[in-house]
Amino acid sequence: MLAAIGSAAGLGNIWRFSYVAGENGGAPFLIIYALCILFIGLPIVIAEISIGRNARGDAVLAFRHARPDRAWYLTGGMAVIGCFFILGFYGVIAGWSLKYFVSALSGHLWITDNYSTYFSGYIAQPIEPVIWQAIMMALTVIVVAGGIQKGIEAANRFLMPVLGLILVFLAGYSLTLDGASQGLAFLFAPDWSAFTRPSVYIAAIGQAFFSLGIGMAIFLTYGGYLARGHSIPRAAAIIVAGDTLLALCAGLAIFPAVFSFGLNPAEGPELAFITLPGLFQLMPAGKWLAILFFGLLVGAALTSMFSILEVPVAYFIRRTGLSRRTVTVALGIIIFSVGVPASLGYSVLKSASIGSRNILEFYDYAISNFLLPLGGIATALFTGWGWGKAKALEESDFHDSTIGKIWLFCLRFIGPIFIALAFFSVSFF
Which CATH number belongs to the domain containing residue 65 in this structure? Predict the structure, then answer.
């Protein structure tokens, strides 16, 4: 359970949620995001866990076991391949977080007055960002090589309470600042005109998938380790509630402070690495708060990286028959290599843009708006239509209940329709 919660509680909740919410008007985004979590995210998480527990295997085996007469196993294969790119992208941001944590701890972060120059100068280097990325990947490999209980569960048993305490402390401190009420209004008082903008819906669906890790087969993989006596709906509800609460706490920690010091909440991806360091320098005890915040980012990154790596590791252990340690190290090297071009997209590969986006921005865009929703819609369609109503209700622990029928309705219609509309909007708006 801790491993699954840790997979959801990652950079998507803190770094990405904060800037996406800021770019999309705060409260309108938050409302749509909550609805996406409830009617799309939670049903798919339940579906993934159900498929995984039924098969007791990796992502590909789970779909093949459920319907050996159909090509649904390609959904699992797509998730395994997708994890290479997702973790490659994730490792870059995780490396930035570790760099800032160490710099805040050593005091090096406070020798500049211009954090835009500091950040752009750092990512423009061809070597240092790759080194920090490699360190985060190495830490991930070490933990995952230890297995679920001795590795991932043990690490999350320490990291999750610490992350929760740090975030609650930062949120509590932020709410005591003068002008914090403006940040609360930004998060909870909606501008109703924003609900007419398709981009807000696209962002909310993409963030829901990125934050929960839907479409990566993480919950499907962990479902294989869930005992029959555990209620899948209850486990999924705890995971989703914890994920959403963490994102909300991140908003409460960041936006009241941003408004208190008159900063722009729509700073984009650089919010955590340019805006907030300048903010910490202005705040009482800000340097200590910066250490806590960037430590939080590092811990959150690791909990998700463990889970993302576990998906291809589980598959290739079965396919190759090699030891967990050998497979984990080999995949760690390959995935690190996949992420290196994204890290170098600000330096030696700066000219290698894809449309108007550099390599890292393209990874983020393609993963959030296409790869994860595509995996999610395939899982929803399989569970809602391909698996069979009776089998889906039985394996999910809903049986022939009213709430089970509502769950199937969400998987059959609500999720696929809204995800398809998001695809349409991405293409035409």
Answer: 1.10.4160
